[in-house]
Structures are given as structure tokens and as C-alpha cells.
Structure prediction request, 222 residues.
Amino acid sequence: MSAGREPLRAAAQLALAGLIAALLLAGTWALTRDRIVAAEHRAQMQALEIVLPPDRYDNDLVADAVQVQAAAWLGRETATVHRARLRGEASALVLEATANDGYAGPIHLLVAVADDGRVLGVRVTAHQETPGLGDDIEAGRSDWITRFAGRALGDPPAADWAVRRDGGRFDQFAGATVTPRAVVRAVKRCLEFAARHGDEIRAAAPGVTLRIESAPDDHRPR
Prediction:
């Protein structure tokens, strides 16, 4: 074989090796894709089930969701709202929300609101509050976060949706008032948001993005 053909042969072998590697990777991805998607779906469902009782829905909460741009209400530029349905009827909303007035940074929440306006469950999904003080908002640290269950607008009255130090109904923590105050405000805004815009959210097609122009009465632009 002439010396001139050696580089061409080497290049062809390299290209063939690259093609084989690409085909192997594509085959591996195809074989594992469904399992990865299923695992992600299970993880999302398990997170939602923490705040939403299983007897409240029979639909796919992950698939039946919309994106909502309502930062004044939910504290983030875009939030996911999952719609729970039971036998075809709307039963609850599960809202992602963020309290941006936490002591050490944003406090991320999941808030489930029943169709009758009552809280089904609240959980903190991420925060940076001070260990031993503000972290009592975690369900694993105390039962404080569970006390929202069953509450609604008017129960307690609007003026009592605050920590006791501010004249409200909800306990603060020893040495930490800012953290629970932020969570109480965020939960109340979720209830107000669901009351005002729930019908619009329930009627929207799955996967759409809704832009909400309204704001809470107590909203102050930063």
C-alpha cells in the first residue's frame, strides 16, 4: 500500500470507531431513557404527596400542571401549579411558592390548597435559615409547619394571619421571628392567589404558561 493511502486508512478507521461509539451511546440512552423519565416522575409525585392526601386525586399531578408568572403572589418569576382532580372534578391546587423575606434568604415552599379554600398541607422544600433557630420550619425538626393544615382565609381572620409577636395566631420561634413571619405571609398569599385566580388556573390547558398581572393588596414593589 502506498504511503499516501495510510492517512486515509487511519482517518477511516477513526471515523468508524467514532460511529460505533456514537451508536453504542445512542443505544444505551434509548434503553435507559424510559427508566430515567419514570424515576423522575416518581420523585416528583412523592414530593407532591407529602402535602396532598392520596384520597384527593386520581389524575397524574405531574402531567396536569401549568406554569404561572405571578411573582407578586408566589415570590418567583415562574412557578409550577399542579392541578389535583378526583373523578374528573377539580379538588385541589399544589403551588410552588417562595418567601423572599426569610432571615437568611429565600424559603421555598409547596402549598396544597383544597377546592374549598382550605390548606391541605405545607412543606419547606429548601431554605438557608439558621440551624437550631429558623430551621424549625422543617417538618423533621418540629410540627410547626403542619399547623397550617385546615386553615383558610377567614380562619383565622385576616388580621390574625401573623405571628403572635405581630398580634397574630401563629407561634414564632425562640430567638427567631423573621423566619416564621415570612412563611405565614407566603402561605396566606397562596390562599389569596388560589381564591382569586384558581378558576383560571383550573381551566387552562396542561403545560401552558399563564401571566398574572394582579398583585396582593399588601404588595409593595421592591
Q: What stands out?
A: The chain is about 35% helix and 20% strand. Residues 54-211 form one domain.
